[in-house]
Amino acid sequence: MLICGALAGPLFSIIWFITGLTRANYDPMRHPISALSLGEFGWTQVTNFIVTGILTLALAAGLWKALRSRSGSVWVLILISIAAIGFLGTALFATDPLNSYPPGTPAILLPPTLMGSLHVFFASFIFGLPAACFLLARYFDGKGEHIWAIYSKISAITFMILYLITIAGFLQVDGLVNYAGLLQRVSLTIILTWMTLLPIYFLRSSSNSQITERN
Description:
Structural class: mainly alpha
Number of strands: 0
Radius of gyration: 18 Å
Distance between the termini: 27 Å
Largest sheet: none
Order of helices and strands: HHHHHHH
Strand content: under 5%
């Protein structure tokens, strides 16, 4: 389960990066990752969201077992599962066109459709990850793992700041529109890197514990 969870972030990033290179008129500096789910080959990004959601659910289960009913373990399971459901929800409900993508759609921000609104709703579930960061920071502090505690807090705070600026860019705030896609990618890379390293930490901790017990 933890290994599956460690694969979620890298696979998600690799697929949106490669997919973005193949789309005509797609600008990763301006356009959201979700826009890759639109058009003839949108199924690739839809599949990416689904696979990421399933792997993130596996991570939640793996962490719950790794924490072994310690204080807060249930909430870690819930928060990361919320993020996983968010990935699955964004696959089911396509985003609205934005910033003239797909080609032929207007550059101005139009009133959201029901599908687009549901997409945004599920996309907001990503905030389950920074919430889990703060919760696990307390766990790390209690274990004396202060570097991990600080890293978790910094990841959460940096992600939230950048992601909120990203939202402003997609809402067509002057000076941010042309960089909203880039900001989204940076913010997601920060939080998904944490999500990748976290299960690796627990896998190494488990291995070290087994070695100690044998000795």
